[in-house]
């Protein structure tokens, strides 16, 4: 069934809501749905309902056919991905797959070795583009709640965001991927064995070329500090591409039962 994102779902059947312009255009011009065809509407927060599309001169409405429903099995996982921005298609592919795997929040991060410079187009344009890709993936994979793409952060800004989350009462363990652990045998801890009781599991992934020496030193300092909620782990000896490391790490957190 075709799906559309709407701001909210009426609490009673038979109510009509105006479809957002982009959603109406996609249903009518791309998918070429006909008047009164049945669709599924989502509020992006975990609720859905069957509805029928009704065309108007300047857009379309959805008339609900049932009460809103939810399904806990189709909700996101409590996983926060701090993803260093990687080039073009790889970043967009990673955003799509993160939605499919259940990532709840994505914070794009600019690091010293980040090649893409978001200031050329403006960070808001990148955020909007990645959120649009995430929303399309949401509708395709059957998930019910949106993956929130947050504003682009600097490396230090991402660490500060993590700190503020913990200070706000939500416990988030941030794992940073250090490939040298597996290569040198120094204090090895594979993410697959890194058990945690924190409410949220979070990953910070470096870009092509990894974290700079300055960034690594900063992470090491925080890892050694009490109550910072940061742990140094690895994903095995081979050097993984950034997008591969991100999705491998997310998969392991899902396997830990981060639900």
* Gross CATH architecture of the largest domain: 3-Layer(aba) Sandwich
Q: Main β-sheet: number of strands, strand sense, barrel status?
A: 7 strands, parallel
How many runs of DSSP E, i.e. beta strands? 12
Number of domains: 2
Q: Uncertain runs with pLDDT below 50, 5 residues or more?
A: none
Count of helical stretches: 7
List the helices and strands and how they pair.
Blueprint: E1 3-5, E2 16-18, H1 21-30, E3 38-42, E4 48-56, E5 59-64, E6 79-84, H2 88-101, E7 105-110, H3 123-141, E8 148-149, E9 153-154, H4 155-167, E10 172-177, H5 180-184, E11 200-205, H6 213-223, E12 230-233, H7 242-255
Parallel strand pairs: 1-3, 6-7, 6-11, 7-8, 7-9, 10-11, 10-12
Antiparallel strand pairs: 2-5, 3-4, 4-5
Please explain how this structure is put together.
By secondary structure, the chain is of the alpha/beta class. It folds into 2 domains: 3-64, Hypothetical PUA domain-like, domain 1 (Ribosomal Protein L25, Chain P); 74-255, SPOUT methyltransferase, trefoil knot domain (Alpha/beta knot, 3-Layer(aba) Sandwich), CATH 3.40.1280. Helix content is 33%, strand content 22%. It contains 7 helices and 12 strands. The longest helix is centred in the middle third of the chain and has 19 residues, at 123-141. It is elongated, with a radius of gyration of 20 Å. The protein starts with a strand and ends with a helix.
Summarize the structure.
The protein has 259 residues and is an alpha/beta fold.
Keywords:
Alpha/beta knot; alpha/beta; 259 residues; Ribosomal Protein L25, Chain P
